[in-house]
Amino acid sequence: MEFPSLMLEIRNLHARLGDGREILKGIDLAVTAGEVHAIMGPNGSGKSTLAAVLAGREGYEVTAGEVTYLGRDLLALAADERAREGLFLDFQYPVEIPGVNNMYFLRAALNAQRRHRGEPELDAGQFLRAVRAKLKELEIGEDLLQRAVNVGFSGGEKKRNEIFQMAMLEPRLAILDETDSGLDIDALRVVATGVNRQRRSDRAIILITHYQRLLNYVEPDRVHVLLAGRIVESGDKSLALELERGGYAAFGSVG
Amino acid sequence: MTVSIDTRDTVRALSGAVYKYGFVTEIEADEAPPGLSEATVRFISAKKDEPEWLLEWWLTAFRAWQKMTQPDWAKLKLAPIDYQAASYYSAPKLNPGPKSLDEVDPELLRTYEKLGIPLKEREALAGVAVDAVFDSISVATTFKQQLADLGIIFCSFGEAVREHPDLVRKYLGTVVPQTDNLFAALNSAVFSDGSFAYVPPGVRCPMELSTYFRINAAKTGQFERTLLIADRGSYVSYLEGCTAPQRDENQLHAAVVELVALEDAQIKYSTVQNWYPGDAEGRGGIYNFVTKRGACRGARAKISWTQVETGSAITLKYPSCILEGDHSIGEFYSVAITNNLQQADTGTKMIHIGKDTRSTIVSKGISAGRGQNTYRGLVRVQPRAAGARNHTQCDSLLIGDKCGAHTVPYIEIRNPTARVEHEATTSKISDDQLFYCRQRGLTPEDAVSLIVNGFCKDVLRELPMEFAVEAQKLLAVSLEGSVG
Question: Which chain A residues touch B1 with a CB distance below 8 Å?
């Protein structure tokens, strides 16, 4: 299969909240298949907004700019269409859905995506086999499956569940929103292991994070500094270390 | 993006594609002229060739009904009903009392097939015996012989009156008296058919018994009567389904269901109600005003009601349990959905009379569109009911910001040892939940359906398997057009 090597291209993206506050003030970013990009920045710089706008969350208005994903106009697609086209968002705060079995949820999602791709749906047996293999690979316990989606999960369990979903859905572009970085060392390792195992030549990963800590476990190809709604600096992984030492102040006023 | 979903849903709602049972069967029918009087009652009795005692019973009810007024305590917008405009009897011609399925009008068989209820036994759902009620009469009952071999009587009400008059006379009206309420009195005056079942002592009914109600004729109502008796130590599970054509006028469905469970007997009664709900602007739809009540007459008897109410323009029903026997148990599990302009005022009554009686109420109300959904429930503990216990859980889910959910519990305790618990919650489907589901690839409709099914899980798992699957699909269909 041929892949366009340019997976995601963001040009001059401006977006504001429903109350009119402009959060993204001209983002430019190009992500090639096979790459891991880290986007770093202080609180309020627009990191989570960028993730939300790319995933198609309602409540944001794009006022200017373009986003091309696999050669298509991403912004013209609804949130669920983007997901079925292979865009995955790992939630900073995964949402609870009471009464809905975690496995049932994941199967519904996977089959929705398979239908979209014209692939046959997995029946319960096939799905269970796929799930077991993936759980083993990621060293996640099976008890997670029979519980209601994220209900009563610890922080670490929620994180594991997100990574597990990502592994099952096999996205083309994964955006990991770890802005808050409230991750304990255990959860940090789960995310890092997941990301490292998910690296593939036909997949791109965008890691959004506040601290450099996560990057001790995942080695990004590119690092971007987001400040007051703009990417002010891009570089290789050494940029992250520079940030760790000097903080964001070196790149301009901290919002 | 939001706009496009709104537009799509509006188009779908306007096209009326959501109610797939709205077709009409072209069949020649025997109808009573519109209007209700003693003459009408006598007309129906003569048509059905009913015995004198039953005519007297009907006339008593009719006279009582004339003096009664429409209840005004429910939280419903309901214009006065013109009882003289409707016809009270409509029966398919040709074959009023078929002896076997081979004699049933093929047009009727096709109708039930279209509804997903094949009546030919070899094609029928395994393990489900069906009594098919079409407008005013029962047109077919399946698996009768197999059940009869076990001593189980399962037949149309008319047949029960002819073949088992002693049982009918012994129990009819003992749970729901003729004068119970306006709609029960109306039913008691004109009910022309319905289902009857009797399970003898110690017999566990090997298949689900079910009645499928279909209103077909225009400008008529349906007034069927169900009487179900579980003798000592027996068990029966009963299912009920209903649909009606799509019409612009309102049609009245005023049924009465009476359940009697004797010592150690258990009755499980499940309903999936899918009457035509009216269109998106509130035109047409069924008025579902039914009286359902069960009596646990003996010690350790148990009656369990499970209902999934998705259809009807207006629903007014309170399936109840009278817990007379010591240690008897009553249960009520309910999902009620109101979308567009539907209204529902539904709940239960648990009357604790015997010692150590227990009841459980789980009610899930879902409101979407401009729907209004009220849970109304009574828990009464009589002075003799020492050690009575009740647990009530009432949850409401709101979809959108133009609908309403209301919870009206009545608790009357006359014994100091009673323990009664009431829990209630109200929540909305959050944007976070919807977005989370959609980000995983589910369409907005599938996302809502998934979240709603999760919300209703405690009730849906009480349904027999075949019904649970059907109910899940129905929940999704009923809520189509509610996201945007």
Answer: 56, 58, 78-79
| B window 316-375, beta carbon within 8 A of A | none
Tokens 């770890």 locate to A178
Which residues of chain A neighbour B5 with C-beta distances below 8 Å? 78
Contacts of A78 in chain B (CB under 8 A): 1, 4-5, 438
- The identity of residue A6, as a single letter, is L
Kindly determine whether residue B451 and residue A78, on different chains, have CB atoms separated by under 8 Å. Answer: no
Residues in chain B within 8 Å Cβ distance of A108 = 442, 446, 450
Question: What would the mean pLDDT of B252-258 be, rounded to a whole number?
Answer: 91
Of B1, B431, B451, the CB nearest to A100: B451
**Does the distance separating the beta carbons of A95 and B432 come in below 8 Å?**
yes
Tell me whether residues B442 and A79 touch, CB distance under 8 A.
no
Angle at CA of residue A8, ends A4 and A14, nearest 5°: 150
CA B161/CA B47 separation, integer angstroms: 14
Would you state the structure tokens that stand for residue B238, as one six-digit string?
């009963």
Task: Check CB contact of B431 with chain A, cutoff 8 Å.
Answer: yes
Among chain A residues, the shortest Cα distance to B429 is held by A97
Q: What percent of chain B lies above the pLDDT cut of 70? A: 81
What pLDDT score was predicted for residue B119? 63
Burial of B451 (0-12, 13-18, 19+ CB in 10 A): buried
pLDDT tens digit sequence for B408-438: 999 999 999 999 999 998 888 888 999 999 9
Q: What is the pTM of this model?
A: 0.81
Q: What is the DSSP string of chain A?
A: ----SEEEEEEEEEEEETTS-EEEEEEEEEEETT-EEEEE--TTSSHHHHHHHHHT-TTEEEEEEEEEETTEEGGGS-HHHHHHTTEEEE-SSPPPEEEEEHHHHHHHHHHHHHHHTTPPPP-HHHHHHHHHHHHHHHT--GGGTTSEETTT--HHHHHHHHHHHHHHH--SEEEEEESS----HHHHHHHHHHHHHH--TT-EEEEEESSSGGGGTS--SEEEEEETTEEEEEESTHHHHHHHHH-GGGGS---
Q: Look at the block and give the residue holding tokens 């009727």.
A: B108
Distance CA B94, CA B105 (A): 8
pLDDT per residue as tens digits for the range A103-154: 999 999 999 999 999 999 998 889 999 999 888 888 788 888 889 999 999 8
Judged by CB atoms closer than 8 Å, whether chains meet at B439 and A94 is answered as: no
Domain residue extents for chain B: 26-428
